[in-house]
Amino acid sequence: MIIKGDICYSKTQKELKTVKGGYLVCEDAIIQGVFTKIPEKYRSFPLKDYSGKLIIPGLIDLHTHAPQYAFRGLGMDMQLLDWLDTYTFPEESKYLHIDYADKAYALFVKALKSGATTRALIFATLHTPATLLLMEKLEQTGLITMVGKVAMDRNCPDILRQESAEAAYISTKAWIESSLKRFKSTKPIITPRFIPTCSDELMQKLKHLQERYSLAVQSHLSESQSEIEWVKKLSPSTKTYAHAYEQFGLLGGGKVKTVMAHCVWSEGEEEQLIFDNNVYIAHCPASNTHLSSGIAPIRRFLEKGIKVGLGSDIAGGPHLSIFRAISSAVEASKMYWRLIDRDSPPLTLNEAFYLATACGGSFFSKVGKFERGYELDALIIDDSKIPTTNPLEIEERLARIIYYSDDNHILQKYVNGKEVFSSE
Amino acid sequence: MIIKGDICYSKTQKELKTVKGGYLVCEDAIIQGVFTKIPEKYRSFPLKDYSGKLIIPGLIDLHTHAPQYAFRGLGMDMQLLDWLDTYTFPEESKYLHIDYADKAYALFVKALKSGATTRALIFATLHTPATLLLMEKLEQTGLITMVGKVAMDRNCPDILRQESAEAAYISTKAWIESSLKRFKSTKPIITPRFIPTCSDELMQKLKHLQERYSLAVQSHLSESQSEIEWVKKLSPSTKTYAHAYEQFGLLGGGKVKTVMAHCVWSEGEEEQLIFDNNVYIAHCPASNTHLSSGIAPIRRFLEKGIKVGLGSDIAGGPHLSIFRAISSAVEASKMYWRLIDRDSPPLTLNEAFYLATACGGSFFSKVGKFERGYELDALIIDDSKIPTTNPLEIEERLARIIYYSDDNHILQKYVNGKEVFSSE
Q: Using a CB-CB distance cutoff of 8 angstroms, which residues of chain A are in contact with residue B71?
């Protein structure tokens, strides 16, 4: 397959590559390259002509909560721990009922499918049937996702507390085996909610499952100051919040692929451990602002060599669109520079785009760039719907898509070489 | 006329009034009240039934730049003064050409007309024909606006510099007289761009025109730190930046109605002068973030009794929607509380809604509330397009409109009792 159009992707953190009227060549879902003319050997490939349209890599959402989609935009006047008690936990408890889960997950999956996201890491709830239902719906979309049945056995309402670590282990094991059997593009991922809701015994059992099935891990880390204080009380002997995960082998290192959401307040030894263990940070700037958590030092993380992707963090963040996360990341970094550290230059829009595509994508595989050997995740976008009087360069058109598309204007979406959405 | 629906408005800064299935009664464009049943004496009034739809006051944009709409979303990686030189001034110089102005202003006016804004204060450029053309287009919409032909005679590119204060006076006077004669809902407003671009002589002449025609005044104040330093050098003898306007009688007080945009860094004597002179602040949180200007201390201003409305500040802010400005105001206030002053509680969503309706509206007249004696500016919104699984209170529906409508889903818009937009 060859896709023709105005092509744009991040070669590196700093460098945006653009080709007007270029040809993106793809063989068996693997990109062969971007060319200004079709090379001889690909002449026989079928051509999809999107001349004048923008072609960019699919966006990667490294952190979101599917069961929170239905109440997004509510309770935004609260901070993290109050918001969890007042809105999140009561809502998540409804997913005990499969009928409710069916209705609510349908809304989430529909929005994710038609939006700009091609791959995502997703928290479900602790309920096995509802989580399998969500995975089934996701599998049907053609998107590539990892979904976590959430583990929690303390410090949460009774209705959301697993009755024991052993019970959690048994149900999580059954869920993993079932989902590995049933789904191809929708993988299970080990998901302790966060240290405060997981006993040591539960963490040990999750490690056991992680190793046994070679699964990735996702959780939350150092999101708000009151949460960090709480973890200090719960795990007084660990050096940092990150070490509270690491002591159980659930914080990257070796073959354990890990994403930690937020890391707003990570520094010093914690930051070093994140780097040493090759942990990905899911930066969720909108959520960090809306829940008054703070601003994560993304420039510093990047300079240290830590891998950072973006997350929508529905419903801490009100918007599922990763375009919004890109502009929020730039905005947050500007306030970080202005108000916290004048030696920390703001992210450019291109850098934030890189986080949302190439850097976030690398968690999954070779995805997020239009380079030889990469899997084809692509969006075809009609930016003519955002009117202007001026002729624009591709880079400027990308900026306008980021600020104004809000996941609209997507003509076609390809994931791993397959068309999974078309607006026609 | 009687409008039936789910009614919602700010009674005060803290109190949101909601009436499910209420009747908003209006006689000769003036509101008579909101009732749960139609009172006997209004029984003969024609009823518009919007049952199940949300009815809220029109939104007020206290600060925006019409000629910057066409390049919105570009150059957001810069700070104020660089951004002015690189993007804004070159773009504004194009409005010398009436054909360009015609095309570009058509885009702006179309977006403003179909969006949630009912009244606005607008900067044009220094060009008289283009400014009159903008006003003619606005007059046709039925919106109520004040438009400023921008005055500047120093520190700007030649093509945008009026050749002398006298020349600026003559052309501004002619523009005022022409627009007062031609337009009813579109009023001229005295508009020095800001102190750096206006000589003392020009300011004196603008004061003369302000008095002669009893006009309101709009300008910029204390937006960024480098701008403030610059003003200090230009006006070394004035106490504060605000005093640099006040010495010419162009900063409120007496009968001079004034809006100053930004006031990010206003404090002490400047803040006192703003309060004493009854100056309105146009808070433009998105612009202040995108141009890395800082965060205005809105909680402190409100506690002091200063009147604050919201502004989109296109194109410093990328979005024309005042719904966006409401959520940005809340976000900015959260970061102010988290990062600058823990004694300054964040704005609630309801407070920011109050700024965008009742408080901003009071600059124009009795507008922005659904109370007896107020002019009817109203939006009828179909929020069923934002799906959820949960039954919601009116207050929660308002929150979701603020976060997700982005100026869409507006069924009807009324300004001063007249329908000016219908999506049908």
A: 388, 390
For chain A, how many helices (H) and strands (E)? 15, 17
Q: Is the peptide bond before A315 cis (omega within 30 degrees of 0)?
A: yes
B35-65: pLDDT as tens digits: 999 999 999 999 999 999 999 999 999 999 9
- Strand, helix or coil for residue A274: helix
Distance between CA B383 and CA B54 in Å, rounded? 7
Would you call A76 and B399 a contact, using CB atoms and an 8 Å cutoff?
A: yes
- What is chain A's percent helix, strand, coil content, to nearest 5? 40, 25, 35
Instruction: Provide the chain A residues 139-178 that lie in CB contact (below 8 A) with chain B.
Output: none
- Mutate which of A338, A344, A347, A395 to disrupt the B interface (most B C-beta within 10 Å)? A338
Strand partners of residue B10:
B16
Q: Among B36, B41, B48, B42, which Cα is nearest to B4's? A: B48
What's the pLDDT score for residue A76? Answer: 87
The model carries a pTM of 0.97
Per residue in A318-349, pLDDT tens?
Answer: 999 999 999 999 999 999 999 999 999 999 99
**How far apart, in whole angstroms, are the C-alpha atoms of residue B343 and residue B364?**
32
B399–A74 C-beta distance less than 8 A: yes
For chains A and B, CB pairs below 8 A equal 108
A chain contacts of residue B338, beta-carbon cutoff 8 Å: 292-294
pLDDT lower than 70: segments of chain B? none
DSSP 8-state symbol, B4: E
Give how far A342 is from chain B: nearest CA, Å: 11
Question: What is the rounded CA–CA span in Å between residue A90 and residue A79?
Answer: 16
Cβ–Cβ of B400/A74 closer than 8 Å?
A: yes
Instruction: State how far the alpha carbon of A415 is from the alpha carbons of A16, A22, A113, A174, in Å.
Output: 21, 20, 11, 29
Mean per-residue pLDDT of chain A: 96
3-state class (DSSP) for residue A130: helix
What pLDDT shows up at residue A184? 98
- Tell whether A389 is within 8 A of chain B (Cβ): yes
Q: What is the DSSP letter of A384?
A: G
A65-83 tens-digit pLDDT: 999 999 999 988 877 888 8
Task: With cut-offs at 50, 70 and 90, classify the pLDDT of residue A126.
Answer: very high
Mutation target vs B (from A95, A289, A295; most B CBs, 10 A cutoff):
A289
Q: How many CB atoms lie within 10 A of CB B84?
A: 24
d(CA B204, CA A308): 55
Enter the ipTM: 0.96
Say how far apart CA B186 and CA B43 lie, in whole Å.
Answer: 35
Report chain A's C-alpha Rg in angstroms: 21
pLDDT in the model for residue A259: 98
Closest residue, chain A, to B290 (C-alpha): A331
Alpha-helix runs per DSSP H in A63-184? 80-83, 89-93, 98-114, 128-141, 165-182
Decide the pairing of beta strands B217-221 and B280-283. unpaired
Measure the CA–CA gap between A42 and B397, rounded to whole angstroms.
53
Cβ–Cβ of B76/A100 closer than 8 Å?
no
CA distance B115 to B109: 10
Under 8 Å between Cβ of A311 and A356:
no
The alpha carbon torsion through B158, B164, B168, B170 (nearest 10 deg) reads: -140
CA–CA separation, A129 vs A135, rounded Å?
10
User: Each residue of B361-376: pLDDT tens digit?
Assistant: 999 999 999 999 999 9
Mutation target among A69, A72, A76, A398 for the B interface, most CBs of B within 10 A: A76
Per-residue tokens: A365: 């595989």
Q: How far apart are CA B60 and CA B119, in angstroms?
A: 5
CA distance A361 to chain B (A): 24
